[in-house]
Amino acid sequence: MSRRQLPSEIRKIEVLNRKTGKKVTRYELRMDAGVNQNTGQRQQVKRRYATDREARKALGEIAGGSTDGTFVGRSALTVERACAEFLAGSHSIEPTTRAAYEHALQPLRDRHGDMPVQALSKSDLDRLVNDLVVGTSPGHRRKWVANSINPMLNLISRVLADLVAQGKLTRDGAALVKRLKRSDKELQTFSEADVRKLLKHVENNRLGHAWHLAFSGMRRGEISGLLWSDVDLEDGTVTIRHNRVSVGGQVHNKDPKTETSARTLPLTPALKSALRRAENTQKVERMKLGPDYGPGEHVVVDEAGRPYHPDTLSDFWRELCVAAKVKRIRLH
Which residues of 246-276 are buried (b: 16+ CB within 10 A; e: fewer)? Predict the structure, then answer.
């Protein structure tokens, strides 16, 4: 039985195999693939395949894609450049969000940055996830958990989906990667005895009011950003309006983390007493330094009236936990 005649777009050729030095048969596909969505120019496809079956399959796929406008020509766009362009195009995000995006994309950029993004496969991403889970990914020896890996995959998916929308990629491979099951890890909290130890330890601590604020449920950024104008000692309330955060070591002032984070809290007798002591202490410090004293607008400041860096508060907190001999729980 004679073989089927090749379509006019496919021709059988002999080429030299560079590894063996011998001639091998290849099937070369040449065809018009319609207008390139990015350049507006017509695009010509020239590809070679080992079998005529592969060439015929590619012919059908390219012809169908060029008809319905879904065909994507080969591109030299790398994973690194795709990530960089995505971040550059994220104009309205907060500095903290941008830092989180950069951190989440770093393992992908480190491993596959030089790879053409069109060559990035589901298998590549599966291997990356597996290595991050066990802590064997170069440059990322700390084991990643579901709470870190799933947002990473979601962000990679956004990068790839954006390229699909631009007509630079045919599909979002990250959408096919299974997300990890989140563990029901019990939230770490202090026991009543630990709280007593800590409060007793800060009775005469200059920053005792900061730790009372932490026990009232305020986050680190909220404590760092709290202003005296937000405190009403007469009515016994404190209003959360500011969030002072650290991004790459730099301090950024922003709104509370969520809409519900902006809130007014009642002052307990112990917290009100701690704030009054802090207010009196800062008045004395202001008198000592005179014009050299800082703005003094923040509730938690150093002896010169300057607000502490949020990371410094975390350092003080760790030292306090060690001194009080209680377990170290991160100051959120």
Answer: bbeeebbeeebeeeeeeeeeebeeebbebbe
Say whether both 212 and 307 belong to one domain: yes
Where would I find the H helices in 175-268? Answer: 192-201, 208-215, 220-225
Query: The pTM is what?
Result: 0.61
Chain length of the chain: 332
Q: Provide the token pair at 170.
A: 């045919």
Cβ contact 56:92 at 8 Å: no
Classify the C-alpha dihedral 297-299-304-306 as positive or negative: negative
98-115 pLDDT tens trace: 988 999 999 999 999 999
Q: Where are the strands (E) in the chain, listed by range? A: 10-16, 23-35, 42-49, 231-232, 237-239, 243-247, 250-254, 264-266
Give me the pLDDT at residue 257, please.
63
Q: What is the CATH number of the domain that holds 215?
A: 1.10.443.10
If asked whether residues 257 and 171 sit together in one domain, one would say no
- CA-to-CA separations, 58 to 11, 61, 120, 122, 163, in angstroms, rounded: 13, 5, 19, 21, 22
